[in-house]
Amino acid sequence: MPAVCRLGSVARGLLFYVRGHSRRGRASAIIRRDDPLRMGAPEGRRRRGAEMMIARLRELYSFRELLWALVVRELKVKYKNSALGFFWSLLNPVVTMLVFTFVFSFVFRAGIEHFPLFFLAGMLPWNFFALSLNRATTSMIENANLIKKVYFPREVIPLSILITNLINFGLELVVLFAFLLAWGYFFLPYLPVVLLAAALLFLFTGGVAMFLSAAAVYFRDLQQLVPLGVMIWFYGTAVIYPLEFIPASVRAILMYGNPMNPLISLFRGSLYGLSWPKWHVLVYCAVAAVAAFALGYGLFARMARNLAKEV
What we know:
Number of strands: 0
Distance between the termini: 20 Å
Mean pLDDT: 82
Low-confidence stretches: 1-8, 17-46
Number of domains: 1
Order of helices and strands: HHHHHHHHHHHHHHH
């Protein structure tokens, strides 16, 4: 194991964890950077499909303590020396909600009933998606020293960001639930749909985020392009407006050409609309989420082999 110098407390903790992991007789879970599975040697290339995926998942599970340590670090850095702490994560959507409530209720007079609830039911899942993509794009570059010095599954870095944002998303949903109950929305029978929607959103976001986290190492301009693309994506997603406001000629294109639209419709339909989703929408969301995760994770695995050299 190479020596690690001046990499900060996380790197030192990682090195301590890896050494302890090895001393407990589980050194097989730790693969060197020159391992044929990672570097693309012939015997590594022959391992494909389910066998490769199972091996990666087992290795990732063996580093679950490291994953949680990085999640805790993300949360601490985000709210360090902050008087309001977690409430800052609520401030942005709440302020945005107030602005759009004024615009749509008093300027355009859109006539959307209980617009703040309508808005939050779409904005909170969108925030999870957008923040995860923006943060994941820079994550590998920000952790370059750690990646160069110590081996660990590279998936740990984008996954720690996803889990951190998922925790924030869950806390924000609790606040939204309180608002809904205060307004008389009895959404409890639809909670299973909300949980399913959250799982599908996590898969879809995870696939895109993993791909971007590795691709940004090879194409650094993604650090500037992704926030711009996310902003454009936002206006093509029915967050601040209902899809019914869109002309029928382009509504289907927006609905099924942008997977975030049906995913957000699952949240909004269950919490705000108090209605069950249509089966074809559920199937579409499930297929899109699984496909995005499989494709994104597969591309990530290919690019991760040389991250230590390229970062």
